[in-house]
Amino acid sequence: MALVANRPFMEPMKVMPESLGRPSKRLKLMAKKSYGPLSSILGFINQLDASTNSNKTLEILAEIQDGSQYDESEFPEAIRRLCELFRKDKESTVRIKVLSLLVDLVHDNNYDGNALIDDIMSLLKQETSAKVISQGLTVLMRLGKTLGTSCSQIPKMILFAKQKLLSPSHNVQRHALVLLGSFLPPDAEQENLNLVGKYTDSQDARVRAQAFSSMLALGQRGIDLTPNLYQRAVEALKDDYECVRKEALQLIFEIGVRHPEHLIKIEDSDQEIRLIDDAFGKVCIMLCDLSMHVRTQAAELLGGMSKVSEEFLHQTLDKKLMSNMRRKKSLHERSLEHFTSGEWSTGKKWADDAPKEMLAADSISLMASGACGALVQGLEDEFLEVRTASVDSMCQLALTNPTFAVTSLDFLVDMFNDEIEAVRLKAIFSLTAISKHIILREDQVEIILSSLEDYSVEVREGLHIMLGACKVSTQNCLTLVVQKVLDVLSKYPQDKLSAYGCLQRVGQKHPELCMSLTPQLLQDHPFFDSPERDVEDPSYICILIMLFNAAQHLPPMLSLFPDTTVKHYAYLRDTMPNFVPRLPIGGSPIEMNLTGATGSRQFLETLLVNIQSSYSAPKARQALLQAAQENLARLAAIDPSLSGTANFTAEFLGAQLLTEQLQSCVQSQTQTRAPSKECLNQLVRRCLKLQNLFSNLTLDDQLLVKQISLRASALQLVLIVKDKNQSALAPCQLLLHIASDASVFLEDNPYLTPDSFTKAILSQLAVLTDPKPGRVFREILPIVQVAAPVATPLININIKMCTARILEPVEANSTENVFKVTAGLIAALPLVVEIENLQENQVQNLRIKIKYPDQNTYMAVPRLRDLKKVILENGKPSDDKLKLRTQVLLSHGVWTEASQVEISLCLSVRRPGNELELCKPVKVTLFPKPVKRGI
Question: Model pTM?
Answer without folding.
Answer: 0.75
